[in-house]
Amino acid sequence: MSAITFDHATLHIGGRSVLSGVSFNIEAGEFIGLLGPNGSGKTTLMRAVLGLLPPSGGRVEVFGRPPERGNPAIGYFPQLRTVLPDLRVRGRDFIASSLNGERWGLPSLSRKERLAVETTLESVGARDLAARPLSEMSGGERQRLLLAQALIGNPKLLLLDEPLISLDARNQEIAIDVVRTVCRERKITVLFSAHELNQLLGTLDRVLYLGNGQAVLGTVDEVVKAPVLSRLYGADIQVVRADGHIFVMSRGRDVERVDHMHDHDHGHSHGHDHGHSHHNH
Amino acid sequence: MIMAIAMATITVTAITITDMFDYEFMTNAFAAAGIVAVVSGLVGYFLVMRGQTFAGHALSHIGFAGATGAGLIGIAPLWGLLAFTLAAGVAMGALGERISNRDVAIGVILALALGFGLLFLHYYTSFATQATALLFGNVLAVDHPMIVTLAVLGAITLAALAAIMRPLIFSSLQPELAEAKGVPLRFISTAFLAIVALAVSECAQIVGVLLVFTLMVGPPAAAQRVTTGLWSGLIAAAVFALAESWLGLTMAFYSDWPVSFCIAVLSAFAYFACLALSTRMGPAHPVPAP
């Protein structure tokens, strides 16, 4: 069964074409690494799957049906989180707010919902964390809490938008490991966007590489090679393999690393923002 | 902290309850301040959570223009206050985050509103005596019909808040996710600012448009220093606001200082005490070793 199907789909934001006539098919249960330079449309693609951005051309399907907003089968981990610098709400209440958070009335959780929160916190090892306010958490802890949240309600598809941003190398490994374990166990389809391919190499089934309005889906060996990436980056790209690692280079510079450092800075400045929300899609 | 305030309330009221409540203006003031404090504390909790306190401040200034304008055309200031704050709240919500979180835009608009307030006062000179009451509150002049009005407005405000509370919390804490789950963000933020407008109008009757922070921001901010739970935070915010306004009234009765000054002092004291308390205790739960 297909989890996500794009059939000659075109996505526009504010008159700008982000993806044009893109086709691919992700099977249920696959772990897909979503890669591509900044602004190549990784978040936009996820928004289309979430039903927030209808395609201006072609067809998008999620589990054989058109995307619908609020689809309970999708767990979502957004990239730009508006965490107020002084948000003194404990982690448990923070993630509990997402359970049926779209309903009217006073917030209240049934016993079953409370149990679901606890079970999920347990499964990602975030139970102790959840008693603390968000303003006192490190980036890695916050990430783990939000991952727990994305898993509540047993989604069949998990969209993780740059979950590794602003994590150190060790916490990145832990995060990938947790996602892999939980998703293999529950047979969840994963779309994991990232800047660096190497940490995901041992985990992903296939990569979906975006760039220049196009998308290429395939195994690492099929996609991560000079001719394909040169087309996606619109630049002369060399792919260097060394010691089980893959380096994507442009004129001798590692494009992934440059991108990553750039975005890392963004992640930081965002954290110190005075509560202004950003919609940078 | 809560204990200390509660105990102080009990001891002070025990000594003074007989003579203070002999005066009808004091019982009226206690009733009005009580209603408004609870509404302000609860609505203010979300104002602080959303980081929109400055927007709340601006609404009260815009309300000042409404109140003086109402005096000019001969209706009660409260209705002018309500009309202007509601209109401004809805407009800010409809314009979205582009405006409601922009400090400069809000600052310019609130200054403009105060200017208009002054203009209206200029053309309606006999109203000028009421200017101080509007700016700094006059809770001791509250009469029975006003208490009824405040109670009805307060009930409407809290009912509206209760109706949107769940999606409001969700979209305040996690707007991106809330949007993906189908929460109408724009509607929620507009409805919330309308609720804030109602609360500001009520609050201004007690402490005046310039001091709405004392009941709408001080108590919730103090509450969020002592508890990180949602419900406990809401309850603490309401209790702080209630204790501060009633203690402030008592303090004013025996000292002859203005009520709004006493409430402002208590509000600031409670906030800084809670801040010191939470900083001294450090993180509530130590970071577990990895």
Describe the protein's architecture and organization.
The complex is a heterodimer of chains A (281) and B (290). By secondary structure, chain A is α/β, with parallel strands linked by helices. Helices cover 31% and strands 26% of the residues of chain A. Chain A is built from eight helices and twelve strands. Chain A has helices at residues 42-49, 91-96, 111-123, 139-151, 169-186, 220-223, 226-233, 255-271, and strands at 2-13, 16-27, 31-35, 57-62, 74-77, 157-160, 189-193, 206-211, 214-218, 237-242, 245-250, 253-254. In chain A, the strands form three sheets. A six-stranded mixed beta sheet of chain A has the order 5-6-7-3-8-9, sandwiched between helices. Chain A has a three-stranded antiparallel beta sheet with strand order 2-1-4, with helices on one face. In chain A, α3 (111-123) crosses α4 (139-151). The longest helix of chain A is centred in the middle third of the chain and has 18 residues, at 169-186. Chain A is globular, with a radius of gyration of 19 Å. The two termini of chain A are 29 Å apart. The model of chain A is unreliable at 260-281 (pLDDT under 50). In chain B, α12 (218-226) crosses α13 (230-255). Chain B contains 14 helices and no strands. Chain B is globular. In chain B, 82% of the residues lie in helices and 0% in strands. With 290 residues, chain B is mostly helical. Classes of the chains: A alpha/beta (281), B mainly alpha (290). Chains A and B meet through loops of A and α8 and α9 of B.
